């Protein structure tokens, strides 16, 4: 489960990073939705998934699925 979550999270982070870089967005602009999501994903990379229970991992994975939908939406409409 942890490996799947790590790969999924990395894919979302990469998508947002590419979007920010390709659109030359200011990574210090705290008012930009895409930049804020990228920062949130970067911070989430610091979470030690091995410390989470299976139930917490499943909830975290569900949360990432929601973030992916959000990321797909804001990169498509921005």
Account of the protein in words:
- By secondary structure, this protein is mainly alpha-helical.
- The chain has a single domain (2-77), classed as Helicase, Ruva Protein, domain 3 (Orthogonal Bundle), CATH 1.10.8.130.
- The protein contains three helices and no strands.
- The protein has helices at residues 2-22, 33-44, 54-77.
- The chain is elongated, with a radius of gyration of 13 Å.
- The termini are far apart.
- The model has no long low-confidence stretch (mean pLDDT 93).
Task: Describe how the helices and strands are arranged.
Blueprint: H1 2-22, H2 33-44, H3 54-77
Biggest β-sheet, characterized? none
Shape category: elongated
User: What is the CATH C-level name?
Assistant: Mainly Alpha
What is the beta-strand fraction? under 5%
- Kindly report the CATH topology: Helicase, Ruva Protein, domain 3
Strand segment count: 0
Structural class: mainly alpha
Radius of gyration: 13 Å
Distance between the termini: 32 Å
Contiguous helical run count:
3
Give the total of domains: 1
What features would you highlight for this structure?
78 residues, mainly alpha, Helicase, Ruva Protein, domain 3, 3 helices, elongated, Antitoxin epsilon, toxic substance binding, Epsilon_PezA_dom, toxin-antitoxin system, Antitoxin_epsilon/PezA_dom_sf
How would you briefly describe this protein structure?
Keywords: Toxin-antitoxin system. The chain is mainly alpha-helical and 78 residues long. It is built from 3 helices and no strands.
């Amino acid at each position: 489960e942890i490996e799947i979550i790590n790969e999924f999270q990395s894919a979302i982070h990469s998508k947002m990073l590419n979007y920010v870089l390709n659109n030359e967005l200011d990574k210090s602009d705290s008012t930009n939705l895409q930049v804020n999501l990228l920062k949130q994903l970067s911070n989430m990379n610091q979470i030690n998934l091995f410390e989470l229970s299976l139930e917490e991992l499943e909830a975290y994975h569900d949360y990432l699925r929601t973030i992916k939908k959000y990321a797909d939406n804001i990169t498509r409409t921005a």
